[in-house]
């Protein structure tokens, strides 16, 4: 008999926000030609495992980390958040 999966709880607004930020980071990374998040993180002196969690929307980040990432992409906060609800 197969085990039934438990229903997943609805994402909180904050979890949805983290997911959107992660998707935006991935979008920007791939636009720069990086197919692998680890190479991007290494080239920009960011902890690779931590950066991977950011892109997956699985970990909250400090504002200083977000600032550093946005600066690495040459964007303003307004430009970075333009499509994030």
Could you please describe the fold and organization of this structure?
By secondary structure, the chain is mainly α. The termini are far apart. The longest helix has 19 residues, at 13-31. 58% of the residues lie in helices and 0% in strands. The protein has one domain (13-80): Orthogonal Bundle (434 Repressor (Amino-terminal Domain)). 15% of the residues are buried. The model has no long low-confidence stretch (mean pLDDT 89).
CATH architecture: Orthogonal Bundle
Low-confidence stretches: none
Shape: globular
| Largest β-sheet summary | none
SSE inventory with pairings:
Blueprint: H1 13-31, H2 37-43, H3 48-56, H4 63-72, H5 77-80
Helix pairs in contact: 1-3, 2-3
Short key terms for the protein model shown above:
single chain, mainly alpha, globular, 434 Repressor (Amino-terminal Domain), 0% strand, 85 residues
Provide a quick synopsis of the model:
This protein has one domain: lambda repressor-like DNA-binding domains (434 Repressor (Amino-terminal Domain), Orthogonal Bundle).
């Amino acid at each position: 008999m197969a085990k039934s999966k438990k229903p997943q709880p609805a994402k909180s607004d904050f979890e949805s926000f983290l997911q959107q930020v992660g998707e935006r980071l991935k979008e920007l990374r791939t636009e720069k030609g990086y197919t692998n998040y680890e190479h991007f993180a290494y080239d920009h002196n960011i902890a690779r495992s931590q950066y991977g969690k950011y892109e997956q929307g699985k970990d909250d980040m400090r504002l200083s980390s977000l600032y550093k990432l946005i600066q690495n992409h040459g964007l303003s906060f307004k430009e970075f958040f333009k499509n994030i609800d």
